[in-house]
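seq as requested:
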Amino acid sequence: MVFQKRFWLSIVIIIASISSVALTVNQATEPTGLLNQLLQGVYQILSAILGFSIAGMPLIVLWLIAGSFFFTIRMKFINFRALKHAIDVTRGKYDVPHEPGEVTHFQALATALSGTVGLGNIAGVALAISVGGPGAAFWMTVAGFLAMTMKFVECTLGQKYRILRPDGTIAGGPMHYLEQGLAEKGYPKLGKLLAILFCIFAIVGGGCGSTMFQTNQSYLAVAQVFPWFVTHAWVYGLIMALLVGLVILGGIQSIGVVAGMIVPLMCGIYVLAALWVISANIFTLPTAISQIITEAFKAQAVAGGFMGSIVQGFRRAAYSNTAGQGVAAIAHAAAQTNEPVREGIVSLLEPFIDTIIVCNLTALVMVITGAYNNPQFSGLNGTQLTQVAFGSVISWFPYILAVCIFLFAYSTVMSWGYYSELCWEYLFGKKGNLFLKSGFLMIVFFGTVINPKIFINLSDLMLISVAFPNLLGCYFLGNDVALDLKSYMTRLQRGEFQLELIPR
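struct tokens:
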């Protein structure tokens, strides 16, 4: 009965969202006239401010790198020390029945991963290698390891300052630890301002921009394999909106269940395909690895030399794993536990899986096959480069890639629906919640049937900009996290948590 109500409510919302404008929408439609000029002007202004670069590195990326370095040292390399413990917790080894929360550790991890493992792992890495050379993969890996600690800090804070509602649901994330945490430090007004900025940036950048990008790029990839969709873009948009609506209407519990099924599936398919390509070229693997390491320090790398390699590697990692942006803390706040540090340790696995495993597999495929520097493919985009690289070994891989891209996009959009909802509720309460979901599904639809380039470019700046208020708050609260971590690890070493698991 619940599923039927959710199903028909989704139908109503989707139809209501698109019916008034669907007839006037054509593929590749762009904003025109005064609107286009206005959006371009806003984008140029924000780009000059937020996209300011030093030695080719965007200021926001440097901000994230600095935070990752600082917290890795401050937390005494917890990214290495607690990796095994993170796996044990995710497997349920330390689950305690009846602890507050809406989802398991695994479901929280899967939900957060669904928002990070996406087209950036396919298209973004391919472009990073083609521009910065194989050495970019090395620096991407370094950045991924550092990002693990950044993710730990923000997800621990998300748990620590979460709100348990009377109905059993949970609200958590940067907006709450920025407001409450900084108020405890004597900066209530600053905390409130940073929380509001985070929510605005997250809704516009993630809920609008990232959603449009994922749906648009997934449609193009699917339409390339299944040409029927070229003239029926609205069908793809409607299917995507319907599938997303069915899940986000059920809240974090529905998202956690679906993500727990989809994330392992989509990662498994892609990883197996990558390993297939690598195994077919197994004798060139040592050469490829050596090339990645040597060119990471070579002055004459592909584009920009040594610095070009570093810039592309760190930039790709920053955009891929979202460490420092704080959005993953929203999902992890809902996990069932009374130990904030424990959930923070679980989050260590996100950059490890996203950047160190999935992104590196893409990089190895690009280097092994030589697709990244083949003049024949110089005009291809990131997704097309990946298709060519995989297709050189697996002739039918475009179909597999289309499935992966669809699942990547679907899971990312699904997560951003939940993140946007929590940010909206912080700003406006429950009022207009149905309006938000209706608008979100409309964005999913229009991301398919129009060319949203200007909207995507504008909102992308907003998305990465969430790192400014989030990371600033983490600096204020980082010492508290370090003390909590020390206490937790001491109790873990004493075996106190094992006593909790003994039936009484």
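The longest helix spans residues 188-225.
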